[in-house]
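Hi C.,

You asked whether I'd gotten around to modeling the 299-residue construct. I have! Everything is below, sequence then structure, no commentary in between.
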Amino acid sequence: MEKLRQDDPPRIGDFATLARLDADGSRGVPERRYLARSADGGHTVVACLPPPGGDPARWAAEAQQAARLTQPGFWPVAQLGGTAAFPWSATPYRPALPLPAVLAAYGGPLPEALVRTLGGALAEALASAHVLGIVHGGVCPAGVLLTACGPLLGCFGATRAHPLTETSETFETTATSATPAVGLETGCLAPELAAGGPADRAGDVYALGAVLAYAATGHTVPERDEVPAGLRDIVTACRSRDPRGRPEPARVRAELLPGAAYGGLAGATEPISLPGRVVEALSRQSAEVLAAALPTHER
């Protein structure tokens, strides 16, 4: 849990805000996320708002789409509310750490075996969505929420909700020069998206490669030699400048977890093997949420 700031809302709908989900100063978080609780203390949620400076209408439209999805491996949106100027969404709380917080808890880049497990689950989630014509459009490190049972993809539609404000004709895979709107992680934007193209399946795969690179190195655009040798080829393929050269998510999954049965990773209900420091961080968050008292007065 991260302490609230003076500019954070004391209430979101019927929920009193308790804490921020993301650390102060976190980069690449395309929405504001809070831990919040109902007035009777009976319901704790993760509540989300548009980012400061974002377009509330665009954000709300993507939240409405997310609320209709039942795809395994996607962070669910269970409740929508607010006004046109102040829309919000909420999901029943479960212990979950954004991927940047996972690396912070572990103390650096994650072991290759764990990167493969997380990447395989994310690739399976994208594969199941792409078959139905659903483009996530918001894959990024902050959009990956790690639970005890594996990762879930949040921040649905962030690329569509917050289009680029500027583009550059010299966008490179080794250095980003496009300037995105509020909250977007530039390293996760495929060159064709940075040039003004629409979010599509190939863009999701590019962003997945950036997430794999981040989990393995701490950077979304590392030098090739920084990526562990066992992951280098698949990360490079996902981040191909040519959308036609990027693999389908099902192939990414097969490369990361050869021989693993399909259908058991995304949205799994059994705990996965996690480093002790990450388990401790999840447990600490859960304990702090349970112990958090409702505010006694409006700030």
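If it helps when you're writing up: The CA atoms of residues 25 and 219 lie 16 Å apart.

Thanks,
B.
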